[in-house]
Amino acid sequence: MDERPLVSHISDTARWVAAYRAGESERPDALFHDPYARRLAGAVGQAIVDGIPGGQSTSWPMVARTVLMDEIILRVIEEGVDTVVNLAAGLDTRPWRLDLPNALRWIEVDLPDLMEWKQRQLLDVTPRCQLTQLVADLADAGARRQALDQATVGARKALVITEGLLVYLESDQVARLARDLAAQSAVQLWLTDLASPGLLKFLERSWGPTLKAGNAPFKFAPPEGTTFFEPLGWQELEWRSMFHESIRIGRHMRFARVFAFLNSFAPARKREEFFRYSGVTLLRRQAED
User: Fold this and answer.
1) Closest C-alpha among 145, 107, 157 to residue 284
2) Where are the beta strands (DSSP E) in the chain?
3) 4, part of any domain
4) CATH code (residue 218)
C-alpha cells in the first residue's frame, strides 16, 4: 500500500501551519497562546512538520508571521476597523484567542471541508467577537464576489486578511482578487504576507517537491514587490521584514544576527533586497480620483 504523501491537498498546509502555532504555544516563553492549534493540526499537521525538509527548524517564519499579523490586526481595530474579512481563513483561531471587541464583526471564508473540520473541533469554544463563517471557493470569481458582498454588508471600515494565500496563486489570480477587493468601498485595508522571487527559488529546492505532490506549489512572488498592487487600487502602508522582525521577537534562524551584521555592509540596493526578501504588508485602498 502506498504511503499517504505529506501534503495531499492544499488544505493540509493549514494543518501544517497550525502545528507550528501549537509548537510555539507549548513553549514556556511562548509569544502567543493558541490552545486550539494542536487539535486543529491533528496528526497530519505534525507529520508534515516532522517529515518535510527542515520542518522542525523552520518554524520561525510562521511564528513571526503570526506575531506580526496579530500586532497589526489589534492595532487597526483600535484605530477604527469594525469588520475583519479573513479570506482562505484555514485553521486560524484569532476570533477565539485574541482579545477582541465583542461588537467586532469577523467573517471567515474558506472551502467546505476545512470549514467543517474547524467547526467540529471548536464546537465547545465561543468566539470573542461576532463571527460569521462563509463557505466559498475563492477561485470562482462569482462565488468570491458574492462572499465579499455578503461579508461587507453594514461595514464602515473593513480589513481583509489573506494570510498564506497569495503565494499559492498565479499573478493574474492575485490581480483579479485585488480588483475585487478595491471594488468594495468598505474594504479600506488589506493585510497579507508576500514572498520575493529569491525566497521562492530557495523554497523550491526544499519544500517544492512535497508541495507539488499535493498540488499546492508556491507561485506568486512579484519581482516588483508591493508595487505590483498599485495599478490594482492598492498601495503599501506598512512593510515588516520577516527576517528583521524575527530577530526583534527572538524567533529567528541560526546565525541570523551574524547575517544581519554582514548585510549592514552591503550596498543599499542589496540591503533593500534583503529587507524585502519576505514580509508582512498592510496595503491601503487608494483614494478614488
Assistant:
1) 157
2) 83-87, 105-110, 130-135, 158-162, 187-195, 234-241, 278-285
3) no
4) 3.40.50.150
User: Does residue 200 fall inside a structural domain?
Assistant: yes
Residue 81 sits at the vertex; the CA angle it makes with 20 and 192, to the nearest 5 degrees, is 40
| pTM, to two decimals | 0.95
pLDDT tens digits, 240-252: 999 999 999 999 9
Q: Is residue 7 part of a domain?
A: no
Contact assessment for residue 91 and residue 120, using Cβ atoms and an 8 Å cutoff: no
Residues near 34 by Cβ (< 8 Å), separated by ≥ 6?
18, 21, 22, 24, 25, 93, 97
Structural domain range at position 204 = 12-285
Q: How many domains does the chain have?
A: 1
Query: For the CA atoms of the chain, what is the radius of gyration?
Result: 18
190-236 pLDDT tens trace: 999 999 999 999 888 888 787 877 777 889 999 999 999 999 999 99
Give dist(CA 120, CA 85) in Å, integer: 21
